[in-house]
């Protein structure tokens, strides 16, 4: 731990590393890990529970009056009335973990009166520690990070998550991917949203979008993005998104272009946009019948006005100063 960091961030780092040690030990023999299913394709392991317990113990030992909101135990632990609430995902990417696919992380954020003030995302398989404090910047392994400088979507790598729960709108998600695939350098689905957001902050990816996410999936990562100079919100660009179950993030200029493409798919979109999407999904075999024509128009617009989307984002609120 560093003496230069805020004491609360230092405690979060201690908790994340304790959880990471549990995860790394279990990863040596993944087949021996006990697994249960919360719902179809949604798994929880004894490692999730042990990691969460270690995090909560570390945090409440240091700050017994703070609240806790954790993926597995909810608000069972900690104070129920504190302005300080730790938001915890003890193992983001559980499905990857149980298959031995090394893309998963620990995510810890501290909220004060509803605003995220400190964030830690720890990747134990690579020993990468992403940290941020509001107003003090974002870091990986104590090195300052910034979002990428790319300004055109055609040059960008965008990460996402696929729907996997019964009742998810698979057809709409296919349409969203059809909007982006021909317009970007590549679309990626790593499988751990908190790490996806950390990678946007570090400039490894230029944008990210996903629906169906819970607050513990995005709380820490969202602060990393904004402290690294990026923007984060829902698909329509509104910054108050933490509990809205949809998240879009990116560099300032790319964020504006993504909002322009994906905003109509938001549950907060205007009624006319929603109606147009429903009609397109009904008309097209994959819900993307008009995408090629739209792509040509968008590419022409990008060439003629490469900075127009950037200018639009200047009027949009960000999640942090």
Write the layout of secondary structure elements.
Blueprint: H1 7-27, E1 35-39, E2 42-45, H2 46-62, E3 67-70, E4 84-92, H3 94-98, E5 105-112, E6 115-123, E7 128-133, E8 138-140, E9 143-145, E10 157-160, H4 170-180, E11 186-188, H5 193-202, E12 207-211, H6 215-227, E13 231-233, E14 246-250, H7 252-262, H8 271-283, H9 291-304, H10 308-313
Helix pairs in contact: 1-2, 5-6
Can you characterise this structure?
- By secondary structure, the chain is of the alpha+beta class.
- It folds into two domains: 7-145, Fructose-1,6-Bisphosphatase, subunit A, domain 1 (Fructose-1,6-Bisphosphatase, Chain A, domain 1); 153-313, D-Maltodextrin-Binding Protein, domain 2, CATH 3.40.190.80.
- Helices cover 38% and strands 22% of the residues.
- The strands form three sheets. The chain has a seven-stranded mixed β-sheet with strand order 3-4-5-6-7-8-9, sandwiched between helices. A five-stranded mixed β-sheet has the order 11-10-12-14-13, sandwiched between helices.
- Helix 5 (193-202) runs parallel beside helix 6.
- It is globular.
- The model is unreliable at 287-321 (pLDDT under 50).
């Amino acid at each position: 731990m560093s003496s230069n960091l805020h004491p609360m961030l230092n405690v979060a780092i201690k908790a994340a590393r304790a959880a990471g040690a549990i995860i790394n030990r279990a990863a040596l023999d993944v087949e021996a890990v006990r697994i249960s299913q919360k719902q179809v394709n949604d798994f929880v392991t004894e490692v999730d529970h042990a990691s969460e317990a270690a995090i909560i113990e570390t945090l409440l030992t240091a700050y017994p009056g703070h609240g806790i909101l954790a993926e597995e135990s909810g608000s069972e632990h900690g104070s129920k009335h504190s302005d300080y609430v730790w938001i915890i995902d003890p193992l983001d990417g559980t499905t990857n973990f149980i298959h031995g696919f090394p893309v998963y992380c620990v995510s810890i954020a501290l909220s004060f009166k509803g605003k995220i003030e400190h964030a830690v995302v720890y990747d134990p398989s690579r020993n990468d520690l992403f940290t941020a404090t509001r107003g003090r910047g974002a870091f990986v392994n104590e090195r300052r990070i910034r979002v990428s400088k790319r300004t055109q979507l055609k040059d960008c790598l965008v990460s996402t998550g696929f729907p996997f729960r019964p009742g998810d709108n698979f057809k709409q998600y296919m349409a969203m991917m059809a909007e982006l695939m021909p317009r970007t350098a590549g679309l990626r689905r790593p499988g751990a949203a908190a790490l996806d957001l950390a990678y946007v902050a570090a400039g490894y990816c230029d944008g990210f979008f996903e629906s169906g996410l819970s607050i513990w999936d995005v709380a820490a990562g969202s602060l990393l993005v904004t402290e690294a100079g990026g923007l984060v919100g829902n698909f329509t660009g509104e910054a108050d998104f933490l509990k809205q179950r949809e998240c879009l993030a990116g560099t300032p200029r790319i964020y504006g272009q993504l909002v322009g493409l994906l905003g109509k798919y938001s549950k907060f979109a205007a009624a006319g946009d929603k109606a147009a999407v429903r009609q397109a999904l009904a008309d097209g075999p994959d819900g993307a019948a008009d995408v090629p024509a739209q792509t040509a128009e968008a590419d022409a617009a990008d060439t003629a006005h490469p900075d127009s989307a950037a200018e639009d984002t200047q009027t949009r609120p960000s999640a942090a100063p």
